[in-house]
Amino acid sequence: MKAVVYKKYGPPKVLKLTEVEKPKPKDDEVLVKIHAATVTSGDVRLRSSNFPPLFWLPARIIFGLFRPKKKILGHELAGVVESTGKDVSRFGVGDAIFGTTTMLNTGSYAEYICLPESWKHGVVESKPINLTFEEAAALPVGGMTAMYLLEKADVKRAEKVLVYGASGSVGSYALQLANKEGSSVTAVCSDSNFEMVESLGADNVIDYKVEDYSERNEKFDIVFDAVGKTSKTKAKKVLKENGAFVSVKMLTKEKDEHLKRIREMAVQEEIQPYVDTYYYLDEIVEAHEYVESGRKRGNVVIKIDDDE
Ligand SMILES: NC(=O)c1ccc[n+]([C@@H]2O[C@H](COP(=O)([O-])OP(=O)(O)OC[C@H]3O[C@@H](n4cnc5c(N)ncnc54)[C@H](OP(=O)(O)O)[C@@H]3O)[C@@H](O)[C@H]2O)c1
């Protein structure tokens, strides 16, 4: 099968499209023919080994001290079950699924992948029937991260939420999820992304290039840092007394129950994945260059099998 492999950390050009052996499912695994994957900011960080100084050594120990342990990147995917191990009961041949490989188990930049049908090493659900494979692949990481952090901040009690960096993947889901919980959402982004965030439900917008949100004479229940570029100190200036600051810099956990809820909300058209650009597998270097620029809006999708 075709897959993108990287044998060393470095710039996008370390990614090479090549032939590798097609995997075979273990007893508890499904073999998935992947139709679409994504390039996340996390993939870019893994490829370049650009971890914050405090996490650099632990990350290198986990992901490979001198070279990457997992040669195929990619966390998100959507595709069709091609075969199943003998113990698999949740999915059958021909089922359309979407989900993640989890942070430690990458591998979706490929034509096929084997995933356990249940969490521990994968979070997989039936694909929302109303979404294309490309849209479904863009749901899990940003959606689950936003849901985890909003729960931590007790979004159900929040009247006003400020999402800093609302035009990224996590930000675009955070603003939609907070909105669905009944909060009024102020989106901080540049003016070129006002239309995008308003189309996703933002009630107010602030251009971070011309205004410092923390100088506003306004109080919020939650400040959600969706791009890791603001701070608790700044956020405190506009937080209510019992307000909460959450950030993508915090540790989060992928949970089956979150993917189920994300799926249900997508089916009910309560949230929608925002896809910025599509690339093919042989354009993976360009896709990584674009995501690394830090300018992507929502999600960047890799089309692997166009034949829906
Ligand atoms: N903790 C976790 O589990 C977890 C999970 C997923 C992602 N993450 C992390 O979350 C971060 C965001 O990832 P992402 O993929 O959602 O988004 P992203 O692609 O990193 O964000 C791109 C967006 O951020 C905006 N942006 C850039 N600089 C900004 C600034 N100073 N202020 C406000 N907006 C700014 C850009 O808009 P402009 O072009 O207009 O500036 C662009 O639309 C990454 O660091 C990623 O590693 C963490």
Describe this structure as you would to a colleague.
The protein is of the alpha/beta class and 308 residues long. The protein has two domains: 2-139 and 273-303, Quinone Oxidoreductase, Chain A, domain 1, CATH 3.90.180; 142-247, Rossmann fold, CATH 3.40.50. It is built from nine helices and 14 strands. The chain has helices at 41-48, 53-63, 133-137, 140-152, 169-180, 194-199, 232-236, 256-267, 284-292, and strands at residues 2-5, 16-19, 29-39, 76-84, 96-100, 112-116, 123-126, 160-164, 184-189, 204-207, 220-225, 239-247, 275-280, 299-303. The strands form three sheets. Strands 3, 4, 5, 6, 7, 13 and 14 form a seven-stranded mixed beta sheet that branches. Strands 10-9-8-11-12 form a five-stranded parallel beta sheet. Helix 4 (140-152) packs across helix 5. The chain is globular, with a radius of gyration of 19 Å. The structure holds NADP nicotinamide-adenine-dinucleotide phosphate. NADP nicotinamide-adenine-dinucleotide phosphate binds at residues 40-42, 45, 141-142, 145, 165, 167-171, 188-190, 192-193, 208, 226-229, 248, 252, 294-297.
Radius of gyration: 19 Å
Largest sheet: 7 strands, mixed
- N- and C-termini, Cα separation: 18 Å
Task: Give the full name of the CATH homologous superfamily of the largest domain.
Answer: Medium-chain alcohol dehydrogenases, catalytic domain
Number of domains: 2
How do the SSEs run, as a string of H and E?
EEEHHEEEEHHEHEHEEHEHEHE
| Contiguous helical run count | 9
Q: Strand percentage, roughly?
A: 25-35%
Quaternary state, please?
single chain
Integer average pLDDT: 96
How much helix is in the residues? 25-40%
| Estimated structural class | alpha/beta
What fold name goes in the CATH topology slot of the largest domain? Quinone Oxidoreductase, Chain A, domain 1
Supply the CATH architecture of the largest domain. Alpha-Beta Complex
